[in-house]
Amino acid sequence: MEISNVAVIGSGPAGYTAALYTARANLDPVLITGLSQGGQLTQSSSVENWPGASDFPSGLDLMESMRLHVEKFSVRCVSDDVESVARAEDGFAIALTDGSVINARAVIVATGSSARYLGLPGEDRFRGGGISACATCDGFFFRKKTVAVIGGGNTAVTDALYLSNLAAQTHLIHRRDEFRCEKILTDKLYQAVESGKIRLHLSCVPLSFEGREVLEGVRIRDLKTQEESLVAADGVFEAIGHDPNTGFLGDLVETDGGYIRLHPETGFSTATSVTGIFAAGDVADHRYQQAIVAAGAGCRAALDVEAFLGGRTV
Q1: pLDDT given at position 30
Q2: Which residues are catalytic?
Q3: Contact criterion met (CB below 8 Å) for 220 and 133
Q4: Which of 227, 294, 290, 273 is nearest to 47 (CA)?
Q5: Which residues face 230 on adjacent strands?
Q6: Mind listing the pLDDT tens digit for each residue in 82-127?
Q7: C-alpha angle with apex 12: 142 to 51, nearest 5 degrees?
């Protein structure tokens, strides 16, 4: 039975970085990219915050350059999705959807998370062209324009506050009368409302995204009056959460809200509850959700695996 030293699952910034570093360490990794390669970043029309990429490439182009980079180090790439990961003799057995199995002594899970979307009419049409799930990624494109944020938790309020410093006007649409975020954020929010930077639409639900050639706004319904209206906006940010892509793991590793729980007390900052399985990027990070942070975690996971296979800690 052929067994690889390390299998990297995922082809976002964390996965590609982990594959690159383990390849340079002569660990001969296998990279399981998934059928849909590149992760969430491929949905960004322009990436302006990747150090050194001053030509602001599209997310798709940036991820393609990462793919070409790992191929220069002869990384074996498998374009398939993972069905399950199970313990096996001398490591782990990774079952793919095509029925094949990859065996590895160590595994790096870098499958990221998927932004939740509302699934409303017009959403697919304008996603990546006016509709986004990442204010810190795409807010810069809406400087001095009008934007709307949908949601009522910490992320939504944080995004609205962030955007209010960029946009000419920021709308916040929330289906309830009260917010579910921390009090300090609520206080800052109402200060911004008083200053006119943010306009609230409480007890309102979005119905559809409207526009002809470009996004023109989001249609909402007031739950108290049942009246419908259009909130004019050049950009809409859906801040209703993310779902980590961990379903294929079952209950193999410990999770917290679906995100893989890390155990740095083991001596490896990216270790999971299962010896030999490591995690990097958004799949273990509900807070930052940034490509550069994920890439750094991929580097740490690769260094952890190198030390683990060598019988030492970092």
Answers
A1: 98
A2: 134, 137-138
A3: no
A4: 290
A5: 219
A6: 999 999 989 999 999 999 999 999 999 999 998 899 999 999 999 9
A7: 55
